[in-house]
Amino acid sequence: MRRTVRMASMALAVVAVGGGVAMWRSCGENEEATKLRTALVKRADLLATIGATGTVEPEELVDVGAQVAGQINSFGKDANGKTIDYGSVVDEGTVLAEIDDSLYAADVEASKAQLEQARAGIVRANADLVQMKAKLNQAQRDWDRAQKLGPSEALAPSAYDQYKANYEVAQANVTVSQAAIEQAKATLLQTQATLDRAQRNLSYCTIKSPVKGVIIDRRVNIGQTVVSSLNAPSLFLIAKDLRRIQVWVSVNEADIGNIHPGQAVTFTADAFPNHTFQGQVGKVRLNATMTQNVVTYTVEVTTDNSDGRLLPYLTANARFEVGRRQNVLAVLNAALRWWPKPDQIPPQYRDVTGPAGGEAHPTGIVWVEQDHSLRPIVVTTGLTDGTLTEVEGGDLAEDMHVVVGEQTPPGTAAAVGGGVSPFAPQPLRSR
Known about the structure:
The protein is an alpha+beta fold and 431 residues long. The chain has helices spanning 2-33, 102-149, 157-204, 333-337, 413-416; strands spanning 35-40, 42-58, 61-65, 70-75, 89-90, 95-99, 206-208, 213-218, 225-226, 234-239, 244-252, 264-269, 272-284, 289-291, 294-304, 315-332, 363-370, 373-384, 388-392, 401-407.
């Protein structure tokens, strides 16, 4: 029994060694089968952009509200003679809606009656003044005669005092009548103002368009009662000119430093996926917003919409042009990120350090094949469009081959995923 177990153990050991040798051979074959992928250094036109999303907005909107309360009786007619509705084209002064004006018309009539009463009050006050002046003249003459006679046997002292009092009362009555006239005039002005206000409220029952434009939104229906308070209720939203449109784009705070007025912008809309629209930055709003700890700024992009293709509130995918280079040497970004394995680096280049984190920096390194070996070239990087990066420096030239990665030919064990245990030690690769 012990001999059987010993023989089985020896057999397992032989199989394990054999498997290890086979695995080593397989790994060696895979290493030999691995080849480098290269790409040509070419001249290209590069365009660096910042992408963001936004919303198409009319350049100027007018919110038409109601300044009086009441029930909507009817809608007006647009420029085509149709009832006001969504998309109606209206001119300045076009009647949009009519509010029930019965109460306001009654207020106007009451104010007119009060105005006539105030005018009559002025007439009466003027008449009273004439009467008081006549009495003053009479009292003046009686008082003059009393003064000539003086207190004597011909004029009793009491009569003398009476004439004097009558004269002074008449003077006071004239003054009172003059004040009554001024009061009547003030009452007239007050009732006139009340009438003007009542007439203005009556005119507010007719909602008119303040501008020429297109109805974007109608927010009331016939029979609906609008209530005017501190904030006028919104009835219609009018776009003043849809030929002039804006795109309000939300730009991340990390990119806002590269945005400036006049900057060229291209954008697309989901409704027109095969068309690219042109625009430019008009304004960068300073009132940033924070959503889930992400700060964004709203950038206004102006564009021409003479053909009326862009509709309000479409979603736009915008790209801001940050930089442009023409006919410059460029390599794939992968060439600046790739770094050879330690055993692939020739001894004289072992002290060359690669880009930290595998990212492209203002100074980068690309590798080229030379005499069945690799040679690094230090380059200065420039503009990148996300795929290609502008490079210059060293002896890098057009049509040179730079390494961008490694490839395994089809049919090898590594390519088909067979022959190598996933638990076997894998070759180490720096960076």
